[in-house]
Design a protein that fits this description.
Length: 157
C-alpha cells in the first residue's frame, strides 16, 4: 500500500508536546503512539478524534501520569505521525476499527486498558470494546456513539 509519511522535522517546533514517539507496524503501516508513565494505577488509552492527532491530549496526559497511570496515546492511521495511505478508499470505519484492534493487540504486556474516547476515536474504540471486551476495564465515552442496526441511507453513510 502506498502511503505518505510526514517528516519528523514538521513536529520539531511544537513546544508543549515533549513526548518521544514510538512506532508499531500495523499491516505494513507505521502507527505512531506515545507511551508514558509507570502504570501502577493502570493503563489509560486515549484515542483522538478527527481531524486531530495525539497532540489533543497534551493537557490530559500529565495529571494521568502523575497519578501513576501508564498513558498510551495513538495517532490513528492517516493522522499525526502515523502513515497516511494515499488511496482514500481505505479510510473506512471498519478499517479504522481493524487498525485499532491490531494496535491494542500489539501490547502483550497490558492485560486490559481503561479508555477515554471521544469523537471519531470513540466510534472506533467502542467497536473495539464490543469486539474485544477482555482488553478493556473501564470506558469513558464523550461526544461519540456506537452505531448499531441498519444504515440510515446514502446521505448518512
Amino acid at each position: 500500500m502506498e502511503f505518505l509519511r510526514t517528516p519528523e522535522d514538521r513536529f520539531a517546533a511544537i513546544d508543549d508536546f515533549p513526548y518521544e514517539p514510538r512506532y508499531v507496524d500495523i499491516n505494513g503501516l507505521r502507527m505512531a503512539y506515545i507511551d508514558e508513565g509507570l502504570g501502577d494505577a493502570g493503563t489509560v488509552l486515549l484515542p483522538h478524534g478527527e481531524p486531530t492527532w495525539g497532540y489533543l491530549y497534551r493537557f490530559m496526559m500529565p495529571p494521568l501520569i502523575q497519578a501513576g497511570h501508564r498513558v498510551i496515546v495513538p495517532d490513528l492511521i492517516g493522522f499525526g505521525r502515523s502513515d497516511k495511505p494515499i488511496d482514500r478508499s481505505v479510510y473506512t470505519y471498519d478499517q479504522h476499527v481493524e487498525w485499532m484492534k491490531a494496535f491494542v493487540r500489539s501490547f502483550d504486556d497490558i492485560g486490559a486498558f481503561d479508555v477515554f474516547c471521544q469523537d471519531w476515536g470513540g466510534l472506533i474504540s467502542l467497536r473495539c470494546v464490543a469486539e474485544m471486551p477482555d482488553k478493556y476495564n473501564r470506558v469513558v465515552a464523550a461526544n461519540t456513539g456506537l452505531p448499531v442496526g441498519e444504515s440510515l441511507g446514502a446521505g448518512f453513510d
